[in-house]
Write a structure and sequence with these properties.
Length: 412
């Protein structure tokens, strides 16, 4: 067993704070939506830091950045880490950024210690994780995993009316490497938890074993418009009333299923949405999540039965359409075990956990052995300017990442 290599907690924290100045907002957060001027400035800063740390920089066709710390054996597939630098409109300084800068801290710490690994180490910035300025979200990692076409990403229109290809050219991040051409030995993404569990349990490291699956159902309930004053209560076909009953019924089903099930109803469209007309038509989304695919299918069937029953009893039409599906992901056992063993060896309290949110690592897991390291964030708060984390926790996550990657990069 080798002695552990130190990460520099103050340097990691300063990098996070410096990056937080790029696209800074008045309440302490930042806004760097993908391929905006602020995102370009953040990328430029990261690239400069990586070059100063001796990395070679490459971009691919969708603007994913690969900063490579060369290894002794250039034929070996890179051991990779990273996350995203783009943000939500009212973001904090840590979501995504931490995973990228923890990767940079790994490189800097190896430089300080004068260690050369056998395999190269890549720090990756995935383009447009958040999907705010254009879609799809997780664009860069989806292209890398081959689930979304480069052409589809290039032709996407941004909120500013430009195409993504135009923005890639304008920002200087249109590379010529085909996404996915570069194969990784493994990929490990460090991230703040964005939830309250680690803080509540008093643990420093979350060993992420899986990411829950997500399904969206679009429900359309059709009744009949009618006069609010003249239509007796027993002669109405009120699509909103039926939808409200559906929401209550299906939330009860989700709550009674098990403690993993998550159901959210949103994006209601009520027609004609007038104060004096009985609503004749309502559409809404059911966002259903669970770590097990069979459970999603089972809950879906129950929800549909309940909603169809309510519609039928009230003489209403109903259509239910599946509009999005993200299957659950189970991370590679060898990577999960290595992260847990490393945290234990370094003496960091840890627990296995599930990721409730989607991450780039979900996509990379399709094509390379992949895992994630979570660290606590204050009050579980994320996608909020007040997002915060303890410097010591962030350093512990980076330290676990460093030791885990180095072990991997040395093994032949
Ligand atoms: Zn993120």
């Amino acid at each position: 067993m080798s002695a552990s290599i130190a990460v520099n907690e103050a340097r990691l924290w300063k990098s996070l704070m410096d990056m937080g100045q790029v696209g800074a907002l008045p309440n302490g957060g930042c806004c760097r939506t993908a391929l905006s001027a602020a995102d370009k400035a953040g990328r430029d800063l990261f690239v400069r830091w990586c070059r100063e740390a001796g990395c070679k920089i490459a971009f691919d066709l969708v603007g994913n950045i690969y900063a490579t710390r060369p290894g002794r054996d250039p034929a070996r597939a890179p051991v990779a880490t990273g996350s995203h630098l783009d943000t939500q409109p009212h973001a904090g300084k840590f979501d995504g950024i931490y995973g990228v800068l923890a990767g940079l801290e790994v490189v800097r710490a190896l430089n300080d210690a004068g260690i050369e690994t056998d395999a190269p180490i890549d720090v990756v910035v995935w383009t447009n994780e958040e999907g705010v300025r254009f879609g799809p979200p997780l664009a860069g990692s989806s292209a890398y995993a081959g689930t979304v076409d480069v052409g589809k990403i290039h032709s996407a229109i941004t909120l500013d009316g430009t195409t993504v290809r135009q923005d890639l050219e304008a920002t200087g991040y249109l590379g010529d490497e085909s996404p996915g051409a570069r194969r990784f030995d493994c990929f490990v993404e460090a991230h703040i938890e964005q939830g309250p569990i680690l803080e509540a349990e008093g643990k420093t490291i979350g060993v992420v074993t899986r990411v829950q699956g997500l399904r969206w159902l679009k429900v359309t309930v059709t009744g009949m418009d009618g006069h609010a004053g003249t239509t007796p209560m027993d002669r109405r076909r009120d699509a909103l009333l039926a939808s409200a009953e559906m929401v209550v019924a299906i939330n009860r089903i989700a709550r009674e299923t098990d403690h993993w099930a998550r159901l959210t109803n949103g994006r209601f469209e009520v027609e004609p949405n007038s104060g004096a007309t009985i609503p004749g038509r309502v559409t809404f989304i059911c966002d259903l999540r669970h770590p097990e695919h069979v459970a999603i299918d089972a809950i879906d069937a129950e929800l549909q039965e309940a909603m169809r029953g309510i519609a039928q009893r009230q003489g209403l039409g109903i259509e239910i359409e599946r509009v999005m599906e993200k299957p659950p992901v189970r991370f590679a056992g060898e990577i999960v075990d290595a992260i847990r063993a490393t945290a234990n060896r370094l003496g960091y309290s840890n627990m296995d956990m599930l990721s409730g949110a989607g991450h780039d690592a979900m996509n990379v897991a399709r094509v390379a052995p992949t895992g994630m390291i979570f660290v606590p964030c204050k009050d579980g708060l994320s996608h909020n300017e007040a997002e915060s984390a303890e410097p010591g926790h962030l350093a512990a996550g980076a330290h676990t990442l460093l030791e885990m990657l180095v072990a991997r990069a040395r093994t032949t």
